[in-house]
């Protein structure tokens, strides 16, 4: 793995209070933001070979809309149950399990752990991670350790919405 892209799921709906947390869908802003961030990422990076996703409905919907921007192919989608309510060890284990199978791996999940995981890898400060934020990190070799990754970019929907994506 030479590139790891981390994606926070897009904004979810709280409209139906009867739904379990794992079953909450995206709201209209979330659907729009997932497409916007997907289009912006498609213009800045190659298609990931593998996407690791939490089993939450909002994550599945985010990934589906995110990858609409890549019209020629889609990555292999792998549902990783441990990424729902994951801790740092779960994130590290998921990436280590699949890193040899892809030069570009994407993982989509939840805060606050996703941000902590990104910060653990990067030498640079990442800042806040609102919903549908994408963080892409480059690695100089095959080693996965603290502060070894170089931040390529952070894209937040509100920062790119007016740029025509």
**CATH homologous superfamily label:** Phosphoglycerate mutase-like
- The CATH topology is Rossmann fold
Question: Which percent bin holds the helix content?
Answer: 25-40%
Distance N terminus to C terminus? Answer: 28 Å
What is the N-to-C succession of helices and strands?
EHEHEHEHEEH
User: Looking at the structure, what is the overall shape?
Assistant: globular
> Total strand count, please?
6
Give the domain tally: 1
Class per helix and strand makeup: alpha/beta
Q: How is the biggest beta sheet arranged?
A: 6 strands, mixed
Radius of gyration: 15 Å
Helix segment count?
5
Task: Output the CATH class name.
Answer: Alpha Beta
Q: Any overview of this molecule?
A:
The chain is an alpha/beta fold and 165 residues long. The protein has a single domain (3-163), classed as Rossmann fold (3-Layer(aba) Sandwich). Helix content is 30%, strand content 19%. It has helices at 28-42, 57-66, 88-98, 113-121, 157-160, and strands at 3-8, 50-53, 76-79, 104-109, 134-138, 150-155. The protein has a six-stranded mixed β-sheet with strand order 3-2-4-1-5-6, with helices on both faces. Strand 2, helix 2 and strand 3 (76-79) form a beta-alpha-beta unit. Helix 1 (28-42) packs across helix 2. It is globular and about 45 Å long. The two termini are 28 Å apart. The mean pLDDT is 92.
């Amino acid at each position: 793995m030479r590139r790891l892209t981390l994606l926070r799921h897009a904004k979810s709906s709280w409209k139906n209070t009867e739904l379990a947390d794992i079953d909450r869908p995206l709201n209209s802003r979330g659907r729009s933001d997932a497409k916007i961030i997907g289009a912006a990422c498609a213009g800045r990076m190659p298609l990931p070979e593998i996407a690791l996703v939490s089993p939450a409905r909002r994550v599945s919907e985010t990934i589906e809309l995110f990858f609409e921007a890549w019209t020629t192919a889609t990555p292999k989608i792998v549902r990783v149950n441990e990424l729902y309510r994951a801790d740092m060890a779960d994130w590290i284990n998921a990436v280590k399990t699949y890193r040899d199978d892809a030069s570009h791996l994407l993982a989509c999940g939840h805060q606050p752990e996703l941000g902590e995981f990104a910060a653990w890898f990067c030498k640079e400060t990442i800042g806040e991670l609102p919903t549908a934020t994408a963080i892409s990190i480059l690695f100089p070799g095959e080693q996965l350790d603290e502060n070894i990754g170089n931040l390529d970019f952070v894209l937040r929907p509100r920062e790119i919405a007016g740029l025509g994506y």
